[in-house]
Amino acid sequence: MLMDARTDLLLDLNILSRATQKYYDRQLQPFNLTYAQLPVLLMIYESEGITANQIVNQGQYDKGTVTKNVQKLEALGYIESSLSRTDKRLRHLYTTDLAKTVIAQIYAIRRDWWNHLMTAIPCREAPLFLSQTRALVENAIVASNTQSMPLLFYRMERLSARAWPGRLAMVLHVTGCNFRCPGCQQRSRIMLPEDARLLDPGSIREEIDRRSGFVDGIVITGGEPFLQNGLISFLRDLKDKHIPVRIKTNGLFPDPLACCLQEGLVQEVSLEIRNDLQHYAASAGLKSFDPGPLTRSLKLLGNAEISWDAVLEVDDSWFQDSDPGQLAALLADADHIRVINHKRTEQCVDPNLGPMDEHGYRDWKERLEK
Ligand code: SF4
């Protein structure tokens, strides 16, 4: 299995949550309770008179979930409510005598589950484990309430003489792509490991300020940069600093591309082309491919007053019946077209994909490159 289990927190949390639910649902059956009602019942027992809103805040629940569980506990006779004397909109919640007769057994069930889990942690490490778990929870609360996603920069090359022909450029690599090309060499960028160390956009901005006198421009590449929510505002910042930008895209995002062209946010575009239109889906790792957005991007670039080039990577699998003539017509407006041959590597999405034979590769180069 290629997934790195060591860092798969998402899956681990999911398994932990489902196992916990299964355990509690089974143990609580004699009380007609389920895992969902348990924390609510304990919160009420430990803070008699608590309100539903306070439960929402303490447990980070949505209101509907709390309302449903409070109603269920009331129907079972474990809790009751009374109107607040000071604020008629509020109801205070209390446990009933019935709850008090079973609560000791419920605490014991909780204690048993804790014991099961903690056998994996040596006693002396338990306090550290608990404080770290609390820190994870606090981070999760903050992050889950954060609306905007910062730019996910994966890597920064401070200086490159190759990324932008004729210029010394800084190169910023972002993560994530809407394709899953079998030939993609950026496996860890499109299947981002949970523990991947991303770069802080603030420190990138500082580095850009430090280097603005030494570099002739910035190249932004991916993954697919236009997937990043913060990209346009980042590009506007660069424009304010008079820093030229070359962007590499797969052409599937004509709207932000149009915005970049209208506002003069990019000075050069490199279009990553995957195949002719009939074979695009397979080369992009998709089941089907709608050529509409790509043809819109090509039209925008064709009408734009900036330089743009197209890069096509050929391989030994997905180009058997492809039509170089169709691609040449599609890319007629490009200033340059470059054809590169796939290299078989371990980092590739499909590590078995090989290069096109030399004769075929030369043919593609001759028919397309300019
Ligand atoms: S479009 Fe580029 S970055 Fe995205 S999956 Fe394909 S090769 Fe990788």
Automatic annotation (TrEMBL):
One of its GO terms (molecular function) is iron-sulfur cluster binding. InterPro entries: Aldolase_TIM, HTH_MarR-typ, rSAM, rSAM_sf, Tscrpt_reg_MarR-type_CS, WH-like_DNA-bd_sf, WH_DNA-bd_sf. It holds the Pfam family Radical_SAM. Residues 162-370 form the Radical SAM core domain. Residues 6-138 form the HTH marR-type domain. The keyword Metal-binding applies. Keywords: DNA-binding, Iron, Iron-sulfur, Metal-binding, S-adenosyl-L-methionine, Transcription, Transcription regulation. This is Uncharacterized protein. It comes from Faecalibaculum rodentium.
